[in-house]
Fold these 4 entries.
Entry 1:
Amino acid sequence: MPKARQIYTVRGVESAPRATGKAAREVGRHLVTDALVRRARDAVSMRVDALRGALAQRGVLPADAPEAGAVVEAFERSYGRRPLRDNAGGTMRNSSTWLFAVAALLRPSTIVECGTFRGHSSWLMAEAAPDARIITFDVMREDGRLRDRRIEYRLGDWSDAGDLEILPQGTLCVFDDHISHRLRLEQAKARGAALALVDDDYDALTLYATGSPPVPTVAMLTDPELAAGTCCEWERPGKQYAYTVTEADLQAGRDLIAWTERMPDLTAVNRYVAQAPMTLVGLR
């Protein structure tokens, strides 16, 4: 039997510093051939364009919103020079794409983020929406947290911010802090917000995919087959969790949520780290 032989060439290159955790599966791994890079970007642009069309139908797309291709090109430029190359435990590339795209398309006057972590997501939104006032909250101190003059960093929970009891028109709320989506949407609506972007929007069938899902999630609040009294139980190594859906949850979903747009999963395009479900919510 003939020996198997290598049929592609390999040459040594100077690699970027090694990353840790999930980031190790992305940092330093990318296409180089120009034609293939263009094809991959076109595949992402097609999905961003579909989102752009959906936002236009919802009546929330500004007249001066950029075209999808321009959004993707701008994202690539910004992401390529991001200060945090290793954002293990935070927003990875595919979710970063949608975070950037939503901010760039909506052109919000103000962005209020709950869940700063190391500061990558707020930095990325400052790149996407340079004219927006960006305020980010986190209840935890983080060593090495990125600081950027375009962003207001606050230690604590946004519910304690008296100056944000009435939000400016055109505010986008971004929730990525593992706190109940129902609670966060109630707070956003009470402050006059019309749009909220939520991360970790796992449905009742996939709550085990993250260690601390923000139950009840938007996906749960809008699930027509999820009945009040359903006990959602799931396991992760060494722990079993449970959450019982209430009629108040389901009613809150009906009262709070006018529409939702779920961000398409880009894993099929690039096989990077699986994207956490991210959903844009139009509040009633």
Entry 2:
Amino acid sequence: MSRLLLLFLMVTSVSARAEFSREYLDQQPLEVTPANEISMSYLSLGDPEQPAIVMIMGLGASHVVWGDALVQGLEASGYRVVLLDNRDTGGSTRFDDWGQPTVWWQLLKRQMGFEVDAPYTLNDMAADTVAVMDVLEINNAHIVGASMGGMIAQVVAAQYPQRIRSLVSIMSTTGSPQLPPPSPEASGALLGVSTDNGAAAERREAMVARGFYPQSMGRQMMAVFKTGDRSDAVATITAPTLVVHGAEDTLLPPQHGAHTAQLIGGSELVVYDSMGHNIPDEVLPKLLQKMTLHMQKADTAAMSR
């Protein structure tokens, strides 16, 4: 069973309630700071004098969804690990007063070429990330993002190149309209939970217990749609980049990861056969090793400048 299940596949079955370890993360005191005109919550783990890793979670997910194994593995490798709650999740500023978008209507507007309504964009969320780095006096960091978090990490790398030591984009996308869409099952599961009327209360309660915020999903989906295709910006990224994807990903098929790697010069693409839109137990140690080697190589390059 997966240690990390992002919301998209989690909602398809009640059996996805299986536990993953987050005891270590739950024991850590959550910090909250003013940043980018909102409040951002975060955890800062490890030695502040060591190189920093900033980790950004996906749609509707708080920092605990990373799970203990990956976070502790990175910390044990000698890194300071900073975990963010994106705006609208966890202890960060919530946008419930903005209301819930009518998802089908906003999707129709998008298909017709009109701008969708959203209280914020991925650019705002990238600025949130950099603002927390400012508060923590982190000049540059390894930025790691999963799914929507990968999109945010890409924006940070493109718009704030001086603040990034390396990029790890996990099961994410450039947002290019030429890429294959989700499978009908993955798309239906996502839409079913992002609207109050379509999701069973029991399923939503299970998600909340795992650290997800279903009520923020519609707004964050609109942030992704309003930001749109980021291919041109992604092509400007110069940071050492590791792109990770699952061969069995039905939400963002493997072509999404391949396109990201194709646009970023010198990047490395790793596709795991047994991985979907999740990080299975058998993949996690391989991913941890790959990420650590990638970051250490970037650290060595940074020190030699």
Entry 3:
Amino acid sequence: MTNEAGSRDESILITGAGSGMGRLAARQLADAGHRVAALDVNEAGLLETAEQHQNIRTFHVDVTDYDAVVAAVTETESSLGPIRRVYNAAAIMPLGRVVDQEVELFHRTMAVNYNGVVNVTKATLPGLLERNRGELINFASLAGWIPLIYMAAYGASKFAVVAFTEVLAHEHQDSNVNILCVCPPPVKTPLLDQARATVWPKIFDQGAPLEPQDVLDAIDAGLERNDLFVFPGRGSRLAWRMRRWLPGATWKRIHAIEGV
């Protein structure tokens, strides 16, 4: 990762570090010499992430549990040093029509994807602001701007992350803390397996999923530019603009692709 992530006396906290982009970020930052706090509900995945990396400390934490998040943040800063950068990457993505999904699934999706971001932000941002330095990176999705059939629960949670992060950034625009919201299209991570296990939208077949490295590189570039929103992948920003300018045409295309 090319973007400077702070001194080696500071630490980096990553949620969703048991797989996917969270795991890749944790390993790369650890390889660069940083102290990494890796959080996930997937304990086995965390152990794999930390293999051969003595500077990755794992925390078996459910981001929906605020007290557990606060405890992990406190322990991280005590044992690894002040947190300089946060990656809010934990997420779930079960898909399906609204009438076919249990109401508990909607609540769980919002709890992990949105409330988890709120919990980690509330636990880490005061320290970043007090030190007046650092980066807070919240993972949303292109689906947080473009609603899609079968993705009501997931999309709503990511719309919430987009709104939360935008307000947060403007509330602290005079600080030196860089607040960034990354909004990728489908990425080649285990998160897509949840879609395959439920409903696979045909629109996902319109292009190959991004490589996780492409998303992390886009984040680094966005931090260098002090961006608020980052849209990794060719065509992502155009799709975002089309939704804003021509919502009717966007929905017409979605219906045509899905055949519903």
Entry 4:
Amino acid sequence: MVRNVCFVPLILLALMTLTSAAYVNIVEPYNVTVHNNSSVFIGKAGPGQTFYVTISSTTQNSTGYVLNQGWNKLVVSSLPSGWIAQNSSLYNQYPTVKLTVAPGAIDGPYRFDLTAVNVGNYSRVGSVTFHMYVNVTPDVFQLSATPTSISTGIGQPAKVYVRINNTGVSDSPFVIGMKGLPAWDSNSTVIALHHTSQSFVYQIYAGEPGVYHTTMRVSSVSSPRIYQQSNITLTVKASIPNDYAAIGEGTPAFPIIYEPAYAVMYLINLLLNR
């Protein structure tokens, strides 16, 4: 009897160990391995932003045998109010769910639950449910615009280098715009991938001389609450170097006989400004 009492708990412990052998490898938005009832904090997302969670279909069964198609589907089993989710399709190597934060979500941490499923449990791995936490905040990127002081000629485009450091989990597009220039209303839409820092070129110009104190605004298409600004001073004036530089930005409206001379003047300007 003593042997039986000791043997039963050992069997139960072994069964518990075997049934918990299945795991889930999360590959996006970053790599981490979870088990049933695990909790994971994935970072930041802005109100209204869309992001994705991707897992590998690979897992193992209770005997430790590795299954390349263990997880056939990833589903959202619990979601905050107002959020939108789309479950993964069936039988992909990397099942992916799509989640969109409620546009009116207040700042703070939110939890949602995902379940990796072996459809029909044909591989005898059951399912694994894990809890994910994300911090909702408009502070999901950093902006750097250079140079902040530019001198250029009348009608001559000037380049601003816009660096977006996307610290959130969403790949939602950003819109680059400028206020403070006369008759200027040109926006550029770019995508800075999550957890990356990327640089973009944005051109501005003015057709009249003057000193313009402008404001560059970069915002997410997902919500007007997600934005950053940078002040840039643009000085526009007529000068020989600026006129020479302007030649290289387009085709001069002069007879073709003069074009070689203007090309030489443009090259001279480039050498002087090295």
